[in-house]
Write a structure and sequence with these properties.
The chain is of the alpha+beta class. The chain has four domains: about 90 residues, Beta Barrel (Lipocalin), CATH 2.40.128; about 200 residues, Rossmann fold (3-Layer(aba) Sandwich); about 80 residues, alpha-amino acid ester hydrolase ( Helical cap domain), CATH 1.10.3020.10; about 230 residues, Sandwich (Jelly Rolls). Helix content is about 15%, strand content about 30%. The strands form six sheets. Strands 10-11-13-12-14-15-18-19-22-23 form a ten-stranded mixed sheet, with helices on both faces. A nine-stranded antiparallel sheet has the order 4-3-2-1-9-8-7-6-5, with no helix packed on it. Helix 5 runs antiparallel to helix 8. The protein is globular, with a radius of gyration of 27 Å. The N terminus is likely disordered.
């Protein structure tokens, strides 16, 4: 990109470029530019003010960034192009008015090493606002992902509403990661005896950290809150287990609650092959995150993960060919594939027998990593919520995307910036209510009674006194043998068959499949991908309702009850509930679109108990009953309800050999065999989905 003048003679910025500019693609994102001390300054809701370098009267850039800003036009017609490294416009903004300056506290950064009870020292970064003189509460996030980059800019950038509220913000490296001492243990079990000065887990490390901060950081008000998403969400939940008395509020967001039952590594016994391989390699190869690659193909392009894992076979082969030593979590997968004491000790749900502190759980209906965790956490605490301090927020978010300010997820439009609305109206007020000294019963306006959910389809926020609401009536939607769904009971014996071949598994997303967190990865939004790319496969069974004449409102847990047999002695069942848009939908991108609303897998060997893997008798009809999780969705009139069943979902989940082997992690190539699966629908074997209808009579009367 040409620079119009010598850097020694950079022009003064033209006052005409000053103003507030709106992102055309995401209209809730703004950039503000104004002239100060002879330089053009840029800020936004998330970006702290920064002076820009002038390359011409209309082109400016940041010292440490490669992209630039180019202004054109003037007044109401002024535009701003954000140029990428090639000098091409990556984003376009329109001027909407005069500059709007925001509040940015002067967070001063310090570091410390906190001694835990066993002598291990834990690294923390502390941000304290120098421009606030009143005592402030701590807002703490503990993380395995590194705190070195924590500063004033990153706090405002990642959590702008909380940064603007003013807290003593603390980021802590957990033991064994980055600058903290000790040994890292993935999903460390909650087994410490808090009376034993040498017994440690994440809850004791949290307790010790709070104790030290209270005594050593001046200007605190004696209260602490914890927040975190994903692994830090699991750590925020740990802060509520035998908590320090100063802990007054926690918000575990997309927390890992049980990585075998339904979060990162297994779902109902089925192993998440790509994630289990990638994440362990990233986390356990060193104290810092390690980049994961699937290598190059013959043409020098990144390898398709589908082919990469299909070629290798079982996890044992993945590990052997990885070039890495056998990592601790890989060893755990290989030696403990069933739900034994090693995994159960990592299940946080067993500790959730009391609401010890106000808890705000947050989850996404389209969370590709930890959808199960927040729903299980809320459900486990709810029976013990005598003080009404157990809160839940759900929305159509992918993993952690409530941190973004946008009106869409993938191709699905919601019409309003629901992440920003949650952060401003619920999260910020929750922490202010419980951590600050505002007077009155309704401090800071926090008024959530129990659950807030953004209902898709209607695209409206809903509030419930309990989730699921009492009005939701579980109603059987029957899978008939002719490819049709019906609200009426089966009156004749019907069945549907398909052949599942592990050599040709059903892909879980469009190919190619990149490493989970690699460049260009499509991992993040795969749950909203159009399912038509697999619907016509012969190894996917499909059932449909007639086109809806009225809206169908579904709020609560969807359960699958599938009666099926297999010619093999083991097998998986994947069930997907789909909203198929009409071919003439108002949004051209959604014509005929098949959007999943609920989906899950179940591994057949665990029908008799997740700790008791057993062969299935070939040809025997067995009931597969499992949860497809919560949803809050309106299937609109004119749409079609679709149910799909399949037996592979690769390489999200490893392939079931479909012949019983002692350990699928070590299965050999000859173990993988095709099997014919038959789904039954008759008076004794009523395959159906239990749908929680809010308008049951209206819906059923339509047919």
């Amino acid at each position: 990109m040409a620079v119009s003048q010598s850097s020694n003679q950079a022009p003064a910025p033209a006052a005409s470029v000053a103003g507030e500019y709106k992102d055309v693609a995401d209209p809730d994102n703004f950039l503000t530019f104004y002239v100060q001390d002879g330089a053009l300054v840029m800020e936004s809701d998330r970006a702290v003010p920064e002076k820009l370098k002038a390359f011409s009267a209309t082109e400016f850039g940041m010292e440490k960034e490669k992209y630039r800003f180019r202004f054109a036009g003037s007044g109401a017609d002024a535009t701003l192009a954000v140029l990428d490294e090639k000098g091409e416009a990556a984003q376009t903004f329109h001027r909407v008015g005069e500059p709007v300056k925001r509040v940015f506290h002067d967070y001063q950064r310090t570091e410390a090493m906190i001694p835990a009870r066993d002598g291990v020292k834990l690294h923390v970064v502390i941000l304290k606002p120098a421009d606030i003189t009143t005592p402030l509460p701590f807002l703490i996030q503990r993380t395995p992902y590194g705190c070195d980059g924590t500063n004033r800019a990153s706090f405002h950038g990642g959590r702008p509403e909380l940064a603007r509220e003013g807290y003593i913000y603390v980021c802590g490296d957990i033991r064994g990661r980055y600058k903290s001492e000790g040994q890292f243990v993935m999903s460390r079990p909650m087994v410490a005896d808090h009376k034993d000065p040498k017994s440690v887990d994440e809850s004791t490390d949290t307790y010790d950290s709070v104790e030290w901060l209270l005594k050593n950081v001046a200007g605190n008000n004696g209260r602490a809150g914890f927040v975190g998403t994903s692994y830090p969400g699991f750590l925020a939940m740990a802060a509520g287990i035998d908590p320090h008395p100063a802990v007054k509020a926690i918000s575990p967001q997309a927390p890992m609650i049980d990585v075998w039952m339904g979060d990162d590594f297994f779902h109902n016994g089925a192993f998440r092959q790509t994630y289990g391989y990638d994440y362990a390699l990233m986390m356990e190869s060193s104290k810092e995150n390690t980049e994961v690659s699937y290598g190059k193909d013959a043409a020098g392009k990144p390898r398709d993960g589908f082919e990469y894992f299909l070629e290798r076979g079982s996890l044992e082969q993945d590990v052997k060919q990885s070039g890495s030593p056998v990592l601790p979590t890989w060893k755990l997968f290989l030696e403990h594939p069933a739900y034994d004491s090693y995994w159960k000790s990592r299940g946080v749900e067993y500790w959730l027998t009391k609401v010890t502190v106000p808890t705000l759980s947050v989850g996404g209906y389209y969370d590709q990593e930890d959808m199960w965790g927040p729903q299980e956490e809320y459900a486990s605490l709810e029976p013990h919520d005598d003080k009404h301090e157990n809160f839940l927020v759900l929305g159509p978010w992918r993993h952690g995307s409530w941190a973004a300010t946008t009106r869409h997820l993938g191709n699905v439009q919601y019409g309003e910036p629901i992440g920003q609305e949650f952060r401003r109206e619920i999260e910020a007020k929750f922490f202010a209510h419980y951590l600050k000294d505002a007077a009155g019963e309704n401090k800071a306006g926090f008024d959530l009674e129990d659950t807030a959910s953004f209902q898709t389809g209607s695209n409206k926020w809903k509030r419930y006194v309990h989730f699921p609401p009492e009005e939701a009536q579980p109603t059987a939607l029957h899978l008939r043998g002719n490819g049709k769904l019906s609200w009426g009971d089966a009156k004749s014996a019907e069945k549907t068959s398909y052949t599942s071949d592990p050599a040709n598994p059903v892909p879980y997303r469009h190919r190619p499949i990149q490493p989970t967190y690699g460049d260009g990865s499509q991992w993040y939004n795969w749950m909203t991908e159009d399912q038509r790319f697999v619907t016509d496969r012969k190894d996917v069974a499909v059932w449909k309702l007639p086109v809806l004449k009225k809206d169908m409102v579904v709020t609560g847990e969807v359960l699958a009850e599938i009666f099926a047999s297999t010619t093999g002695t083991d097998g998986d069942f994947v069930v997907k509930l789909i909203d198929q848009y009409p071919d003439d939908d108002a949004d051209a991108k959604m014509h005929g679109y098949q959007l999943m609303t609920n989906m899950e897998i179940y591994r057949g060997r665990y029908l008799d108990g997740f700790d008791k893997p057993r062969a299935i008798k070939a040809g025997a009809v067995r009931e597969y009953k499992f949860s497809l999780h919560d949803v809050d969705h309106v299937f609109k009139a004119g749409h079609t309800v679709v149910v799909e069943v399949q037996s592979t979902w690769f390489p999200l989940y490893d392939r079931n050999p479909q012949t019983f082997v002692t350990n699928i992690m070590t299965a050999k190539p000859d173990d993988y065999k095709p099997a014919t699966i038959t789904v039954y629908s008759d008076t004794e074997h009523d395959s159906n989905l239990q749908i929680p209808l809010m308008n049951q009579c209206d819906v059923i009367d339509c047919f």
